[in-house]
Write a structure and sequence with these properties.
Blueprint (H helix, E strand, L loop, with lengths): L10 E5 L4 H12 L3 E6 L3 H13 L3 E6 L5 H15 L4 E6 L14 H22 L3 E10 L12 H21 L4 E8 L13 H11 L8 H12 L10 E4 L8
Parallel strand pairs: 1-2, 1-4, 2-3, 4-5, 5-6, 6-7
Helix pairs in contact: 1-7, 4-5
C-alpha cells in the first residue's frame, strides 16, 4: 500500500463500530494498521467477537461501551478517548452510529424524533466539537449517511431526515474546520445488506429491487464501503473536503 493510502499508526474512533457497516469499517481500518476504538451501546457478544477477530488479523482494536444518547455515555466515551490517546493525538472520527423508527409519518411522535436525532445528529455534533482539542492536523471526520437523505422511502422519513441533517452539518463543518486541517466528508452507501434491514418492512422485495436497479447486478458489499471509509481516513484523500462519496454500484443512476 502506498504511504498516502495507508492509515498505519493513525488513531481512529468509530462510533457504532461493532456491528453492520461499522464493524466492517473498524476491521478494515485495524487491518490496515490503524489503532481503532470501536464504540457500541449494548451487544457485548458482538463487541467481544470483533476484538477476537481483529486479534487474529493482528489488528489493534479496542471497544468502548457507551450510549451516546445520554450524558453519562457521552462523557464516558470522551474520557475513554482521552485516556486511549494519552500523549498521542486523534486522527479520525467515523460516525457510523445510527438509530431510527420505521413507521408511517402519521404514526410518528416527537419522542420518535428525539430518539432518532439525538444519536444520528446531536451526538455527531457533540463528539466532533468536544474532540477538537485532540485532533491532529491533518485529520479526517467521516459521517456515514444513506441515500435516504435525498430520496424518499416508505417508513424511512425520520432516518432520512436525520441523515439529511448530518450531511448538511458535515458540509458546514468542512467549511469551518478545514482551516484547522480537519477535513469532513460524507460516506453514503447504497443498499447494503446488514442487520439493519431486519427492521424494515418488505425487506426481501426491496433488496431484490435494489439488485435489479444496479448496473452491476448486485448489491455493494460491506467491505467495499469499508474500503471507501479507509480512503477518506487516509492522506490519499487529503484534497477531499465537504464531499459526498456515494458507494452504490450505480444503483441510483438517473435513467
Amino acid at each position: 500500500m502506498k504511504e498516502s493510502q495507508s492509515v498505519a499508526g493513525k488513531r481512529i474512533l468509530v462510533t457504532g463500530g461493532t456491528r453492520g457497516l461499522g464493524r466492517a469499517i473498524s476491521l478494515k481500518l485495524a487491518g490496515a494498521g490503524a489503532s481503532v476504538l470501536a464504540n457500541y451501546v449494548r451487544n457485548e457478544p458482538a463487541a467481544q467477537e470483533l476484538i477476537e477477530l481483529a486479534r487474529t488479523q493482528h489488528g489493534d482494536l479496542q471497544t468502548c461501551r457507551a450510549d451516546l444518547t445520554g450524558r453519562t455515555g457521552m462523557e464516558h466515551l470522551l474520557e475513554t478517548v482521552r485516556a486511549w490517546c494519552g500523549m498521542s493525538r486523534l486522527d479520525s472520527l467515523v460516525h457510523c452510529a445510527a438509530t431510527g423508527v420505521h413507521r408511517p409519518v402519521a404514526d410518528l411522535t416527537s419522542r420518535h424524533f428525539d430518539w432518532t436525532f439525538t444519536l444520528n445528529v446531536r451526538a455527531f455534533l457533540e463528539l466532533t466539537t468536544r474532540l477538537l482539542p485532540l485532533f491532529a492536523a491533518p485529520a479526517s471526520v467521516v459521517a456515514v449517511s444513506s441515500l435516504g437523505a435525498e430520496r424518499a422511502a416508505a417508513t424511512y422519513s425520520l432516518v432520512g431526515a436525520s441523515k439529511a441533517a448530518v450531511e448538511s452539518l458535515a458540509r458546514h463543518m468542512a467549511l469551518e474546520l478545514g482551516p484547522r486541517g480537519i477535513r469532513t466528508n460524507i460516506l453514503c452507501p447504497g443498499t447494503v445488506e446488514t442487520e439493519a434491514w431486519q427492521a424494515l418492512p418488505h425487506r426481501e422485495e426491496r433488496l431484490a429491487d435494489a439488485r435489479r436497479r444496479s448496473p452491476l447486478g448486485r448489491l455493494v458489499s460491506q467491505d467495499e464501503v469499508a474500503c471507501c471509509a479507509l480512503f477518506l481516513c487516509s492522506d490519499a484523500s487529503s484534497g477531499v473536503n465537504g464531499s459526498t462519496l456515494v458507494v452504490d454500484g450505480g444503483e441510483h443512476l438517473p435513467l
